[in-house]
Specification:
- By secondary structure, the chain is mainly alpha-helical.
- It is built from 8 helices and 5 strands; from the N terminus they run αβαααββαβαααβ.
- The chain has helices spanning about 1-10, 15-25, 25-30, 40-45, 70-85, 95-100, 110-135, 145-170, and strands at about 15, 50-55, 65-70, 90, 230-235.
- The protein has a 3-stranded antiparallel beta sheet with strand order 1-3-2. Strands 4-5 form a two-stranded antiparallel ribbon.
- A hairpin with a 7-residue loop joins strand 2 and strand 3 (about 65-70).
Length: about 240
């Protein structure tokens, strides 16, 4: 979507200028755009009929430059993807979310330190974007929605930073070592205990008695761990 959008805004446009514009936006940091794959994506979109090559020119010893523009098919695809991302709310792929699933595998002091560090990084990012807004940079010859993008980044970063501080404090208080409440385990269809959970089986594996800390614990996932739901919200208007 990003490449189709930039080409549609700047067309006719060289592939070099598409890449430069996306890098100027730092799209590699917040969108699924990799600088090394932009030229390949331009060629692929051309093969799929989304873009067309207008001209190829060479100046001196420089590599040949191809000029692109969006086809009607590409314009339709761009609008479809744009509306999809505006109206649908999906959970983004986040490696940190995967790491959270294995939180008990690390020592509590390391988890707390990592969360405190993450909070600091997030607040630093928020301060950077806030400084750009306060200095007027975001409003200087830029459309209003650029500042709104920055504001959204600030809100999300500050909210997660507060969450990191709260969970770090809970970990430091020993909350991670508390057994999971029984209600969090799925019930067996036959009315017995959760699958893999007998009356003599604890919800979590016991700590190694010789270690004296979570660092020496041999961690395993709790048997009967409930499957998490997948959330996907579609608020697109319905046709009557």
């Amino acid at each position: 979507m990003m490449i189709l959008g930039v080409v549609s805004w700047l067309q006719p446009v060289h592939g070099y200028d598409v890449r430069r514009e996306l890098l100027r936006w730092r799209a590699d940091q917040w969108a699924n755009v990799h600088p090394g794959s932009i030229y390949h994506a331009l060629k692929r979109l051309t093969q799929e009929g989304m873009l067309r090559e207008v001209a190829t020119e060479r100046v001196g010893a420089r590599p040949a430059r191809t000029t692109y523009e969006v086809t009607p098919k590409g314009a339709e695809e761009f609008e479809t993807l744009l509306r999809k991302h505006w109206w649908e709310c999906e959970n983004p792929v986040d490696p940190f979310q995967a790491a959270l699933a294995f939180m008990p595998a690390l020592p509590a002091p390391e988890i707390s330190a990592a969360l405190r560090n993450r909070a600091g990084v997030l607040r630093g990012s928020a301060q950077l974007f806030r400084a750009a807004i306060d200095s007027g940079w975001a409003a200087d010859r830029k459309p209003p929605h650029v500042a709104w993008q920055f504001e959204r980044t600030i809100v999300l970063a500050e909210a997660e930073a507060r969450w990191c501080d709260r969970v770090a404090a809970l970990v430091e208080e020993g909350a991670l070592d508390q057994p999971a409440p029984a209600s969090s385990l799925p019930a067996d269809p036959d009315g017995g205990p959760a699958t893999g959970q007998g009356a003599d089986q604890p919800a979590h594996p016991p700590a190694d008695t010789g270690a004296g800390s979570r660092a020496g614990r041999r961690w395993r996932p709790a048997p009967g761990m409930p499957e998490l739901p997948i959330f996907k919200f579609d608020a697109s208007p319905r046709q009557s």
